Amino acid sequence: MQSSQKISLVGLLIMQSQTLLQRRLKFIVSLASHDFCPWANRYVYWLKQPVGWFFVALGVSILVGVFLSPLGWTVAAGLSVLLLSGLGFPWLVARTVVCELKPVNTSLHEHEASHLELRVRNRLPFPILGLMVEGYLTKPLVDSVEIETVPPRDVGLARVPAFSEAVYRLPICPEYRGTYPAKTPKVACAFPFGNWTARRDVARVTRVTVRPLLIPITSEVQFSGSQMAHVGDGDRSASNGDFLGVRDFRRGDSLKSIHWVQSARNDRLIVCERGGPQQQAIEVTLCTVPCDGSSFEIRENLAWRVRIAASLVDMLVSRHLAFKLFIDGQLQQLPIGNASRDKAWTLLSEVPLDVLRDSTLDSMNGFTKPNGANCIVISANSANNQLLPSNQVRVEVRRSSSGVREQARNHSQWIDLDDDIAAQLNQLLLEAAYANNVA
């Protein structure tokens, strides 16, 4: 019994000594990495670059050659050659090489693989090695830390022949919507020693627009009207549709619409009047209020909300249904016809990738949902303005604007982003159409 107590006491002493040693090591590391003179950083920052230490070594070699030994001049001459070649070659390459960057497709969707064509014109009499293209793709966020994309945002060219124009293909597979390159890419060269990197903007850049990813929606929506021109309230006359009645012939009526029996009975031309209910524009509303979670989770949640809105726009246009697009309560100007889809996708692709919490709290409190008869609202907050988790998106389908039937014809669902999103959207639209028919 006493031996076991001694063993436990020895183990406790060892653990305490290890903890004390770790604390002292952490203190020493923090002391060694502490910045005691932050005001002097701008004077010694150049020493963080390799070329700075080359200049320091060159100055020391000159002092040795002046005061101690002629051997210092030999070392100084060698360092001078290294500096001239390490600084001169990158500088010359950056100012003589002409680069042009343009995409194979000027517009594509997220997660769609494509290429960028990089044309490099070498006007020097010798080949160029170690050429880099920086910043042609944006890095995503993971827990507020930038990570490298696949493929990387920087690409290196093995060799550009002398007196030639070479074409390289840079593969891209954008993760998020937007316009790429977001900033002007740069041509960089650090060959041959890598002690200094010369950079210069690419001469000509053609940007590519990355549109939101589309979710396949196959469910049928039951809204009145089938032509883009049939917009308004109530019924309207048309050359086809349901039979509404008869009327006298008017100039311009089709001969096929003449009711010959009634015309013979009344001794004048009588035509059949047809028509149907007019279509009311469906309001697609996107709310960019961020959800709860880390920076990466907020970006992912907003990206899926934008993708749902883009998919609904694609579905409405394919079914010839008029729509209006609202982003944070602001009506977006759209053309008429099929061109409205491309314009809506472009507007959705311009939604910022990251939305700050503080800047959107006021917009969430003052956000008013559209009051049209038909609207679809995509947001990250519940009915009482409580933020949802990062893996949920709220989609609400409203089919009435006033009256007792409003509550019965509203249908909302929380879309789980970890599950099959297409199946959930199809089920939501199906249930909303069924609830509208029952009402």
Notable traits:
alpha+beta, Immunoglobulin-like, 3 domains
Question: In a nutshell, what does this entry contain?
Answer:
The chain is 34% helix and 25% strand.
How does this model look, in words?
This protein has 439 residues and is α+β, with helices and mostly antiparallel strands. It has 3 domains: 119 residues, Sandwich (Immunoglobulin-like); 43 residues, no CATH class; 157 residues, no CATH class. Helix 6 links the parallel strand 17 and strand 18. The longest helix is centred in the N-terminal third of the chain and has 32 residues. 23% of the residues are buried.
Unreliable spans: 139-152, 224-234, 359-368, 401-408
Beta percentage is 25-35%
Overall pLDDT: 77
Give the helix tally: 9
In helices, the fraction of residues equals 25-40%
Beta strands, count: 22
Q: From the structure provided, what is the oligomeric state, counting identical versus distinct chains? A: single chain
Profile the largest sheet: 6 strands, mixed
In total, how many domains does the architecture comprise? 3
Q: State the end-to-end distance.
A: 81 Å
Radius of gyration: 34 Å
Structural topology:
Layout lengths: L1 H32 L7 H4 L5 H18 L3 H26 L1 E6 L3 E3 L4 E9 L5 E7 L6 E2 L2 E2 L8 E6 L3 E9 L5 E3 L5 E4 L8 E4 L2 E2 L2 E4 L23 E4 L3 E7 L11 H7 L3 E8 L4 E5 L8 H24 L4 E5 L2 E2 L7 H11 L7 H9 L9 E5 L12 E7 L11 E7 L4 H18 L1
Parallel strand pairs: 1-12, 2-13, 17-18, 17-20
Antiparallel strand pairs: 1-3, 3-8, 4-7, 4-10, 5-6, 9-13, 10-11, 14-16, 15-16, 18-19, 20-21, 21-22
